[in-house]
């Protein structure tokens, strides 16, 4: 007879199905964020190149009655404003990474809470069982936790790039795009793998 307040392993499995459904939604959201971020990155690079060209010009051959420094300052202000607008767009976009990380963190907490109620009353051996078709409960718990941490780390890296960006940094045009994308492939491969490894589990009918 099930003790009051304790759970069966099926209760944990149902929660893990919710967790991996959430992971799929978060992963699709991440792809959408990057699709929207790509034009902003390219625009920032283009504007930064204009910024560098504008600061490098010393003798534009303008008529004597035109103050070149004034013209340049107006151009730099316009370019800087457009750069900041695109930076703001990126800041808004990457906040979704933080939301996705929080979602996965909540799913992990709920899953661990159910595991705690289960292990308080029962043998944990069932949580360790795996088969060629189904990963173990402990495997899946670890994947949920790693997913949350990886998404969080990606958010913090991209936030750092945005927070420290300055158009007058040497070589920024050459490194911005690669810095932004650094780690994306590993994150995508990792989340793809977890979704694939749990595909049979997600189709399992739990009584």
Give a description of the structure.
This protein is an all-alpha fold. The chain has one domain (9-203). Helices cover 77% and strands 0% of the residues. The protein contains 7 helices and no strands. The chain has helices at residues 9-56, 68-119, 125-128, 137-163, 172-181, 184-197, 199-203. Helix 1 packs parallel to helix 4 (137-163). The longest helix has 52 residues, at 68-119. The model has no long low-confidence stretch (mean pLDDT 90).
Please state the CA-atom Rg, rounded to the nearest Å: 25 Å
How many structural domains?
1
Average pLDDT, to the nearest integer? 90
Low-pLDDT residue intervals, each spanning 5 or more residues: none
The ordered string of helix (H) and strand (E) elements is HHHHHHH
Distance between the termini: 17 Å
Strand-pairing-aware structural class: mainly alpha
Number of strands: 0
Q: Outline, from the CA principal axes?
A: rod-shaped
* Approximate helicity band: over 70%
For the largest beta-sheet, the strand count, sense and barrel status come to: none
Fraction of residues in β-strands: under 5%
What is the strand and helix layout of this fold?
Elements: H1 9-56, H2 68-119, H3 125-128, H4 137-163, H5 172-181, H6 184-197, H7 199-203
Question: What attributes characterize this protein structure?
Answer:
single chain, mainly alpha, 7 helices, 77% helix, 207 residues
In a few lines, what is going on in this structure?
The protein is mainly alpha-helical and 207 residues long. It has helices at residues 9-56, 68-119, 125-128, 137-163, 172-181, 184-197, 199-203.
């Amino acid at each position: 007879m099930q003790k009051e307040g304790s759970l069966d392993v099926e209760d944990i499995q149902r929660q893990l199905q919710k967790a991996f459904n959430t992971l799929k939604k978060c992963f699709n959201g991440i792809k959408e964020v990057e699709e929207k971020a790509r034009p902003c990155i390219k625009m920032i690079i283009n504007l930064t190149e204009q910024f560098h060209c504008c600061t490098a010009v010393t003798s534009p051959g303008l008529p004597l009655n035109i103050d070149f420094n004034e013209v340049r300052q107006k151009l730099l202000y316009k370019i800087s404003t457009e750069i900041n607008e695109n930076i703001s767009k990126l800041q808004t976009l990457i906040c979704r990474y933080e939301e996705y990380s929080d979602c996965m963190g909540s799913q992990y907490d709920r899953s661990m809470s159910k595991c705690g109620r289960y292990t308080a009353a029962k043998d944990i051996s069932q949580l360790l069982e795996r088969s060629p078709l189904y990963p173990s409960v402990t495997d899946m718990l670890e994947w949920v936790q790693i997913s949350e941490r990886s998404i969080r780390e990606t958010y913090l890296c991209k936030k750092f790039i945005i927070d420290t960006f300055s158009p007058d940094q040497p070589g920024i045009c050459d490194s911005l795009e690669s810095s932004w994308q650094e780690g994306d492939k590993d994150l995508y491969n990792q989340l793809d793998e977890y979704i694939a490894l749990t595909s049979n589990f997600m189709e399992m009918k739990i009584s």
